[in-house]
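Quick note —
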Amino acid sequence: MQLLFTILLSYLLGSIPFGYLIVSARTGGDIRETGSGGTGATNVSRRAGKMAGVLTLLLDALKGAAAVVFAKLLLSGVENAAWWIGAAGIIAMLGHIFPVWLRFRGGKGVATGVGVFLMLAPIAVLLAGILFVAVVWFTRYVSLGSMVAALTIPLLVWVESLIRSQPDSWPVIVSTFAGSLLIVYAHRANLARLISGTENKFQ
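Predicted structure written out below.
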C-alpha cells in the first residue's frame, strides 16, 4: 500500500500543470496552442513573458523535488527503498509529460527532472547545468542544451561514484539514465527540427 500511494502521489505531483495554469491566469489562453505546444518554462516565456517562464521553471522543479522528498519519507525502511525513490522521481516526470488533467499533453520534463535529479545527485546536476548554459549560450537552442545536459547527468553520477568509491550508486545511475532518456523522448519533435534546421532559437 505504501508503494502504491507513493507512486500515485508522485504522478499527481508531477501532473500539476503549472505552466498551463500560469498562462491561463495571465492571458486567458492555452499554452499548448503556442510555439512547441508544451507547458514548460521555455514555451511559457514565449507566451506570457520571462517572469512567467521563471515562475514555471521554479514550480515545475519544486514538484519534482517534492516527489523525491515525499518518497524518501514514505518509503523509509522499505526494502530496495533507493530504487523505489528513484522510480518515484521518474513517475513525477511522467506526470509532467503526460498529465491526466490536460489529456496527457504536458511539457518536456526538463524542469521537473532538474528537481528530481537535484534530490538524487546534486553535484552532477550542478555540472550538467554549467554545460546546459554553455550549449545554449553558443547555439541559442534550449532544447539542445536540455538534451545534452540530461544525457550527461547519469555519466557524471557514475564518475562521481567511482571517485568516491560508492558501489550503492546504481539506483541513482539507473534513475537518472531513465530520466534522461525520457527527456530526449519528449524532445523528439525538437530533435527533428534541429536536424532540419527549423528549430526556434532562444532570444
